[in-house]
Amino acid sequence: MTLSAQLWSDNADVAAEVLAHPFVRFLADGSLPREVFAGYLAQDAFFLESFARAYALALARSPDTATLLTLADLLTGVRQELGLHASYAAEWGIDMAGVEPLPATLAYTEFLLATAATQDLGVVFAAMTPCMRLYAWLGASMDADAAGPYAQWVQTYADPEFEAIAVALEKLLDGQADTPAVRRAYRRAMQLELAFFEAAFVARG
Predict the structure, then answer these.
(1) R_g of the chain computed on alpha carbons
(2) What number is the average pLDDT over the span 123-150?
(3) Residue 120: left (phi > 0), alpha (psi -120 to 50), or beta?
(4) Which of 134, 144, 154, 186 is the most buried (most CB within 10 A)?
(5) Which pTM value belongs to this model?
(6) pLDDT-derived band of residue 116, with 50, 70 and 90 as boundaries?
(7) Does domain 3-202 have CATH number 1.10.1740.10?
């Protein structure tokens, strides 16, 4: 079993919690209140900018051309995701300027940026992979039943192109050593993903 597959398997409990979370369930069936999705969208855009910076920090430390080019492609993928956010914001009249990050958002972005700036690349890839793998898995899991105003959103992450992006990052992780620090970073990122969805849901009030 590859390192990325082993880590995903080891964290299946957190993935299941995310899939069962009311935010995700209501997003899938289209019943999530619009204002909740709008708040999530703004927080996710803030997060993605930090995710892009973490990729850039890793790219600057690339040990070879293949890694550099893969990270450049992954950075382009984040740009496309931000474009999706912008199109939703424009269509729904959501103000994305001056977003105040929630504590859960800050916890996640600070973890990513600190890891990308100070840790070995293996730990960096372990910290970043859960976001990509989890969203690809959620998209695939929800796609058949997705309905309502968020169906397109779900389909974006169910798309084979997004799966390919997740796999590209996993391949970088698979080239690294399996260490306790790598395992801790992956677990921490999974937990921060769950906290991110929870914060978006409880912030509705």
Answers:
(1) 16
(2) 92
(3) beta
(4) 186
(5) 0.94
(6) very high
(7) no
